[in-house]
Amino acid sequence: MSDHPEAPVTPVAAHEPPYYLAVFSAVRTQDQSGFGETNARMEDLVRNIPGFLGMDHAQTPGGLGITVGYFRDPDALAQWRTHAEHRAAQQHGRAEWYENYTLHVAKVERSHGFVRADGPATE
Amino acid sequence: MSDHPEAPVTPVAAHEPPYYLAVFSAVRTQDQSGFGETNARMEDLVRNIPGFLGMDHAQTPGGLGITVGYFRDPDALAQWRTHAEHRAAQQHGRAEWYENYTLHVAKVERSHGFVRADGPATE
User: Fold this and answer.
1) Residue A10 placed within a domain
2) Does residue A5 belong to any structural domain of this protein?
3) CB-CB neighbors (< 8 A) of B115 in chain A
4) What is the percent of chain B where pLDDT is above 70?
5) How far is it, in rounded angstroms, from Cα B73 to Cα B118?
6) What is the CATH number of the domain that holds A82?
7) What residues of chain B lie within 8 A of the CB of A116, using their CB?
8) A89 contact residues in B (CB cutoff 8 A)
């Protein structure tokens, strides 16, 4: 999944509001043929959208997956929403890969982050 | 975790916009003493907030956890944000349980859901 297996996991940072996010919460079907390849391709594509700020994903084994994508403005989000390959993948997802999902698109009004300071090296 | 282990997992449904959501994306520390009890207590408390619409959670083992809470309006969100027990739990979280986290609070502008229709029984 990553070229840097040692890198610590950190969520997408808080940006200066306003910006946009899309929450995609989904339960997948048993048959995931082709999902991995398409998912990797979508990750490549979205990173090339001007105004894409980053993406977080968490997956409970056998349960819910949540992906949150962050975008600078409505234009960036619209570019991603209307991307031809993305639309084809969405159609495929409804036909094959998803049992159910909900998508919420929202304008961020405030945000903040926290990073632990007291690592062992500083004590 | 649930009294209904057979119930299918489904994410919180799309509501009529506008409504609010809070995305909390976090990586936890090694020492999770007391986390489970406090987390369960917070789940009980938030469900009693008038205007609370629901909550989704996904957790990648050993990685990122994402919790998304949904609220009818800013008042509901403010009640939760300023709840005394919740504030104490947040403080404890920064002191003990979280390596890092990001919180994004956003106003939902549109949403939709999908549920697979073609179960085996209908074929």
Assistant:
1) no
2) no
3) 99-100
4) 89
5) 35
6) 3.30.70.100
7) 29, 94, 98-100
8) none
Tell me if A69 sits within 8 A of B66, measured CB to CB.
Answer: no
Residue B91 forms part of a structural domain: yes
Q: What is the DSSP letter of A12?
A: P
A48 to chain B, closest Cα gap in Å? 23
Q: Work out the number of other CB atoms within 10 angstroms of the CB of residue B28.
A: 19
Q: What is the ipTM of this complex?
A: 0.91
**Which among A20, A68, A116 has the least Cβ separation from residue B23?**
A68
A vs B: CB pairs below 8 A: 156
Mean pLDDT of chain B: 92
CB A111 within 8 A of CB A17: yes
Contacts of A22 (CB under 8 A, 6+ apart): A68, A69, A71, A77, A103, A104, A105, A106
**pLDDT tens figures, A94-107:** 999 999 999 999 99
Average pLDDT of the residues in B85-113: 97
CB atoms near residue B70 (< 10 Å):
25
Length of chain B: 123
Task: Look up the domain containing B95 and give its range.
Answer: 19-108
In a domain, A11, yes or no: no
Overall number of domains in chain A: 1
Top pLDDT among A120 and B111 is at B111
Q: Is A6 on the interface with B (CB under 8 A)?
A: no
Angle between helix axes B84-92 and B35-47 (nearest 10 degrees) is 150
